[in-house]
Amino acid sequence: MTSANAAPILKSKHLLGISGLSPTDITALLDLAETYVVQGRAVDKKTALLKGRTLINLFFESSTRTQSSFELAGKRLGADVMNMSVKTSSVSKGETLIDTASTLNAMRPDILVVRHQDAGAAELLSRKLDCSVINAGDGAHEHPTQALLDALTIRRHRGSFEGLVVAICGDVLHSRVARSNLLLLSMMGARVRLVAPRTLLPAQAERFGVEVHTDMKSGLAGADIVMMLRLQVERMAGAFVPSTREYFRFYGLDREKLSVAKPGALVMHPGPMNRGVEIASDIADDALVSLIAEQVEMGVAIRMAILDALSRGMT
Amino acid sequence: MKRIAFRNARLIDPASGLDVKGGLLVENGRIADVGPRLFNDAEPGDPEVIDCRGLVLAPGLIDCRVFTGEPGAEHRESLESASAAAAAGGVTSIIVMPNTDPVIDEPSLVDFLLRRAAATAKVRVLPCAALTKGLAGETMTEIGLLQEAGAVAFTDGDRSVANARVLRRALSYAATFNALVIAHAEDPELVKGASVTEGEFATRLGLPAAPAIAEAMMVERDIRLMELTGARVHFGQISTRDSLDVIAAAKARGLPVTCGVAAHHLTLNELDVGAYYTFRKVRPPLRSEADRAAMMEGVASGVIDVIVSSHEPQGADTKRQPFATAAAGTVGLETLLPAALSLVHDGRASLSHVLGAMTAAPARIFGLGSGTLAKGAPADLVLLDEDEPFVVDAEKLHSRARNTAFEGRKFQGRAQKTFVGGACVFDALAK
Question: Mutate which of A99, A116, A118 to test chain B, going by most B C-beta atoms within 10 A?
Answer without folding.
Answer: A118
